[in-house]
TrEMBL record:
Residues 197-317 form the DUF38 domain. Pfam families: FTH (PF01827), HTH_48 (PF17906). Residues 10-57 form the Mos1 transposase HTH domain. This is Mos1 transposase HTH domain-containing protein. It comes from the Eukaryota.
Amino acid sequence: MENTPENDDHALKSFILDEVLQKQPIFDSYRKLCEFFEHDAMEYPDFEFWFYRFYHGSRDFNYDRKADPKPKTLMDMPVKLMQKIAGNLDPFESVFHEKLEWHLNEKKFVCKPDGNGCTFLKRNRLKMEKSEKNFIKKGLEHLTPIFKMPNLQVNHLTIMVWDPIPELDNLLPASCHVKIALINGYSIGIILLLQSINPKQIALINGYSIGIILLLQSINPKHLVSLVIGGCRERIGREDYEVIFETEQFKTAKHAAFLWHVKFNVEDLVIFRHLIHFQCWLDSDIGPEEILRMRDIFSTFEEFASCDLEFHSTEEIFPMGRFAEALGAEIPIGPLAEGEGWTINHRYKIPKSNDCLEFKITEEASQCRVNIVKIRNGRYCECKRAL
């Protein structure tokens, strides 16, 4: 059977090389390739890779791209950076960027308002489809059939909803299993959308406090391993997080992070005894006795591997100094290099055991972070952090 242009990889690369040698513009070259071969013959990112590789002088058609480093994804980003990005996005900005967007198998789809209608764009194709329909209705015509597929499983699901959208209420089927769910919204309407999600690893939940509680209770606790709660417009009160602590979802999680407006006291930390790793903000006005009490609490945790505690520093309150005083650690003196912050390291041997707690306290601008790691029998605890 002869190789056809549609399935001959060598023919595709020969075509690209010929375009490069003729010094043709890249977009014109890709359009010509799509006309000569099938439209699905090569995705634009792949075309772009080979175009510029040939342009810079390489002629190796058999180069193995598996050797290239994988591009970073959303889940590779530190939680602190994700906080900063989400925290800088307010409802006004979200309306300005109003659109329905999804990524599927490394392809990007965008449907956004355009006059009285909308435009639908598959970015990998450079092909735009115009419609007189509402952008949500048009986008769902393409998106809904995906969720109708039997036994659907996805690795990542990101949903950002800023206003109630009834059309999304029944989007997800009850059988949809999600490995990682990033959910960011300021509307109670998002709860209706997510009741069918069974995250197997991570649930990132942003919203109003009442919405967080309802959403958390709708997640299947059997599959939940890691839980991140943040982005709350309202300050979560003690009564709110006491309800969260009573849920099966929190009790079965192994990793947890409480971000932004949630602040705990030292005595609240005992509720984290079942977690391998956790992150939270604490009341900055902490005294030496409370710091020692915290150290003693962590010494009794059987599952504990590490935690990150955040404090705000002010002119009146300097948490780093209080930790140094309570733990008997020395504060480094002398000038700091540009961009460098204060750091204190301290190790505490747990009485009647071979285990230790290692403290690393850093100060940057107005933020003090205390990282505590447990060392068992001279070895750092394995903590496959999912946060």
